[in-house]
């Protein structure tokens, strides 16, 4: 028998992932500001693209958080 879907802590988990992703963006930007001039241009570009994907993920996390919060309000 399948486990029932327990969504009670989904918002918390999503928020933690969002915060972690934002911190990764800040760290990458700080690193590039300090060392970007000494780096291979391909590596700089790769980090910039990675941060762009992180920003897209943040937008997705925010949408999921809204959906989960709405679900919790509806079912409590």
What structural class is derived from the secondary structure elements? mainly alpha
Helix-strand sequence:
HH
The profile of the biggest β sheet is:
none
Rg to the nearest angstrom?
A: 17 Å
Query: What is the 3D shape?
Result: elongated
Give start-end ranges of low-pLDDT stretches: none
Number of strands: 0
Q: Helix amount, in percent?
A: over 70%
Mean pLDDT: 92
β content, as a range? under 5%
Distance between the termini: 25 Å
Specify the number of helices.
2
The total tally of domains equals 1
Protein name: Protein Tlp
Organism: Alicyclobacillus hesperidum
Describe what you observe in this structure.
The protein is an all-alpha fold. It has one domain. Helix content is 79%, strand content 0%. Helix 1 runs antiparallel to helix 2. It is elongated, with a radius of gyration of 17 Å.
């Amino acid at each position: 028998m399948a486990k029932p879907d327990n969504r009670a802590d989904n918002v918390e988990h999503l928020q933690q992932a969002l915060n972690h992703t934002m911190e990764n963006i800040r760290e990458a930007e700080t690193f590039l500001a300090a060392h970007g001039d000494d780096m291979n241009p391909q590596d700089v570009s790769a980090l910039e693209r990675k941060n762009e994907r992180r920003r897209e993920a943040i937008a997705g996390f925010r949408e999921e958080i809204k959906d989960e919060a709405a679900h919790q309000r509806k079912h409590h």
